[in-house]
Amino acid sequence: MQKYDPHEIEPRWQTVWEATGANSVTETDGGTAAVDKPRYYALEMFPYPSGDVHMGHVRNYSIGDVISRYKRMQGFDVLHPIGWDSFGLPAENAAIKQGSTPAAWTYANIDRQRASLRRLGFSYDWSRVVVTSDVDYYRWGQWIFLKFWEMGLVERRSSPVNWCPSCLTVLANEQVLGDGVCWRCKSRVERKELEQWYFKITDYAQELLDDLELLKGSWPERVRQMQANWIGRSTGAEVDFTLCDAAGEPTRETITVFTTRPDTLFGCSFFLLAPEHPLVREFVVGTPFEARALRVIDAATSSTAVERSKGEREKHGAPTGRFVVNPINGDKVPIWIADYVLMDYGTGAVMAVPSGDERDFEFARTYGLPIPPVVVAEDDPLYATLQGQAERVQEEVPWTEAYAGEGIMVQSGPFTGQKGGKDSEGAQAVIDALAARGQGRATVNFRLRDWLISRQRYWGNPIPAIYCDSCGIVPVPYEDLPVVLPMDIDVIKNESLASREDFLAVDCPVCGRPARRETDTMDTFTCSSWYYLRYTDPHNNGAPFAPEQVNAWMPVDQYIGGIEHAILHLLYSRFFTKGLRDAGLLNFSEPFTRLLTQGMVKLNGETMSKSKGNVVAPEDMIASYGADALRIFILFMAPPDKDLEWEEKGLAGIYRFLVRIWRMVHDLVGAADEETLYEGVSGGASEGGSQSISNAFESTSSGETIGPAAREAAAVLQRERHRVVGKVTEDVERFNFNTAIAAIMELANAVGDYLRLASSAARAADPERLAADHEVAEVLVKLLAPLAPHFSEELWQGVLGKTATDSVHTQAWPISDPALALAPTVELAVQVNGKVRGHIEVALDAPEETVRAAALAAVAAQMGSAEPRKVVVVPGKLVSVVV
RNA sequence: GGGGGUGUGGCGGAAUCGGCAUACGCAGCGGACUUAAAAUCCGUCGCCGCAAGGCUUGAGGGUUCGAGUCCCUCCACCCCUACCA
User: Fold this and answer.
1) What pLDDT does residue A284 have?
2) If residue A787 lies in a helix (H) or strand (E), which one and from where to where?
3) What is the reported pLDDT for A882?
4) In which region does residue A377 sit, left (phi positive, over 0), alpha (psi from -120 to 50) or beta (all else)?
5) Does the nearest atom of strand B lie within 7 Å of A737's Cβ?
């Protein structure tokens, strides 16, 4: 018997599988002909080539590989691709640090990661690799940009953004550190008004929200909730307030606000504008209010969006000296500037109702503004006081905080007495009254903002636009694509696309005169928003993908990745899918039918990270125990969606498990010899010895038949086999890989019990026995095939005597016969008053009366003279006696 | 503040529909084998107790013949999100 040597076995099978195209899909003629196998698209989020493969990748890709291999054995034609998300800022930073170019650094990392993924034995179709920084890919990203532009989904407009004056680029909010400095150079980030490119994802806000319903049950609830919150739909009303001139007289102009509580309109005692609101300066310049107002504006605008939301909650504001008229009651209320009003939500203007809104309440207290109560809880003493009161109370309410809940409207003119609250009858009544006068209307607001996609960065996909002095901003014609990104930009010398004349210079496609190219590149999230579509047709030279290919494979049946992408990547991908559908290129609306978000791999309760110096390198683990053991271990230690605690001893245990199976399979088919059968484990740090041991073989008179205890063990094994096949199948379907592996271990334990009792000589002498044993060995190896592919293939072809054309990975998944999993008798627990007091063994099909009698007899002693009041018989489980 | 989640032995975890809590593994302990060690194999392993027995799924209550699981109250921790009008 050969020793289990993963270091020899694993590379050998990897080479064979690649040479035979074992992991490619079976369709042959471009996917147009019907394939008799059902298709299955298994996808893991592709890696960013930031360095070596880490344990998070191993976990992510192990999950995907088990699903892929399992589905293949179930008879599916499986698409299981891999690629690299290779544009992005880290490449530029690393290039500067290492004196290299982003391209050189990126492609070197891809090569290293590719080698690691190969060593792990993942069943990728290596002929379909997609690398987003390859021109063959990103040119189609440009094509999609143009398509979206054509559809009106691209917009170039001005808005306040985070700007790093040292890096000379806009930064995403998450790239601004908590104290308002650039994550890379630590210089102070500024708010700047800049023209940028946007994708109008808000056009799809409602559909992106509605379609989350389609994903119910197949996406984690958490992710659906996060997306729903992010989209943030609010129902309410727009209300038009009439603006007064500097003298305080009403004009014909109005300012519109959005509110979710029109029922509180009578409680509006002041009116707020965001510091960035264009009207603010107009109001205060040259007035006594100017100095104070400017201080508030400066303080608010110099801080970043992040700072403004994370800093202390103290509210700052200043009066503008102007007034508006409340359309519902004609009240003239002052306009203030407030730093908690956001310019980019709603209209940038807010009607303040301090009695009904916590923030307005705080602001009113700070600046001594009135707090008239308008919606009061019925059981609040204030309700009784105000109910019949004719005169309006503008003074402070006796509350210490605003009341934002449901209640009854008071001091609200004709609406007094109606129910108030969010989406209440009162709210609807107020909307109707406003609408009748043309001063308001029901509306819906979303928190979702348009997607700012332009970056002043070199290492990204160039935006295909041209600036012409006479024609303005012009799209690059489709036939002129790709706009090729120069690979040799010297980021160390601070070179950029803007400094490259050969890139910049272009003739205007409309008028033919000299023009300049756009030098901004696209956010890398645009690259990852459609890569899964390209996998279905990765070498297409005439289009991003052919409709028949993409529609045949998509949507992805199972998507697997980290929870950190719960919002951005997954939302952007959903948007792209809907956009491309509306472009007529796709016939589906959601890209990922099922989503699994895997947990993190931790060490001593902490996330592994280079900076903490607690990284466990997969390559080291492969070197010690092999890829198969590593894969099983990472799946065994926790359910896939939970964080898992790394423990090297656990990995050694899995290695021992594999060695044990290795021996058992040899033993079952009579390929083991006493000399080597129980040889020591040679993995890890220890050297193996070669001591054989004598087993407690049951002695038989002739040595040619197995004894009664062994026969019983064989019967148990047979039942275990069917039970475990059923259990593993169920568990893999549910992604409970940890319990699937535990079940295989249980089968191994049954095999061990059997082998210990039945001598190899006795087994060899009985052809029927030998055939049954061989079958058990095959089942064991097949169950392990998705988990430990090399190990299983070696046993399949090397020990079970199968041929190379008969790979274990093309075998049919084993079938369980539930009837054969059942023992002839079952043991039932007998409870007396809820406590287990005894056990009985009864025939599987024993009638209830028999079971009942046996149970009562078994606990007669415990019951004493007491008469049973009630007896509950739960077939196959227990008998519960009440006395 | 809002949303989501988690709490079970020394540790990772199991219990899928309300039915014998602690499967499977790790660590530990005892034994066999060995000059010895490693490895392997066998046994043991929730807590208290010499035992009989009692107790045990974050705490407390409830429903039920029966609750880790369902309901109520509370505690702790984690994640996400946040001046969204």
Assistant:
1) 93
2) none
3) 86
4) beta
5) no
A590's tokens: 């959601």
Q: Which residue has tokens 């310049």?
A: A285
**Phi and psi angles of residue A272, each rounded to the nearest 5 degrees, phi first:** -120, 145
Residue A768 phi/psi, 5-degree rounding, is: -65, -45
Averaged pLDDT, A377-398: 72
Locate all alpha helices (DSSP H) within A758-847, ordered by sequence.
760-764, 767-784, 789-794
Per-residue pLDDT band for A765 (boundaries 50, 70, 90) equals: confident
Residue reference for tokens 């494979």: A553
Query: Residue A443, Cβ neighbours under 10 Å: how many?
Result: 16
Structure tokens that stand for A792 in this block = 């299983």
Position A293 scores a pLDDT of 92
% chain A with pLDDT above 70? 90
User: For tokens 């990203």, what's the residue?
Assistant: A141
pLDDT tens digits along A596-622? 999 888 877 677 777 677 788 899 999
| Cα–Cα distance measured from residue A309 to residue A402, given in angstroms and rounded to the nearest whole number | 21
Between the CA of residue A696 and those of A558, A671, A704, A708, what are the distances in Å?
Answer: 48, 20, 16, 15
Beta bridge partners of A841: A827
Long-range contacts of A110-115 (CB under 8 A, 24+ apart): A110/A49, A110/A84, A110/A86, A112/A52, A113/A47, A113/A49, A113/A52, A113/A53, A113/A57, A113/A84
Q: What local confidence, expressed as pLDDT, does residue A199 receive?
A: 93
Sign of CA dihedral A496, A501, A503, A504: positive
Determine whether the distance from the CB of A828 to the nearest atom of strand B is below 7 Å.
yes
- Name the residues in A670-689 having a C-beta closer than 7 Å to nucleic acid strand B: 678-681, 686-689
The residue type found at A140 is W
Tell me what pLDDT residue A695 has. Answer: 35
Mean pLDDT of A481-486: 94
Strand order in the sheet with A461-462: A454-455, A521-522, A461-462
* CA A239/CA A350 separation, integer angstroms: 10
The pTM for the full model equals 0.91
Q: What are phi and psi of A779, to 5 degrees?
A: -60, -45
φ, ψ dihedrals at A151, nearest 5°:
-85, 0
Chain B nucleotides reached by a protein CB under 7 Å: 2-5, 11-16, 19-21, 23-27, 32-33, 37-42, 65-67, 79-85
Per-residue DSSP letter, A246: T
- Residue whose pair of structure tokens reads 């012009």 in the numeric block: A474
Angle at A331 between CA A326 and CA A333, to 5 degrees: 80
Q: Encode pLDDT of A320-329 as tens digits.
A: 999 999 999 9
Indicate the pLDDT class of residue A163, thresholds 50, 70 and 90: confident
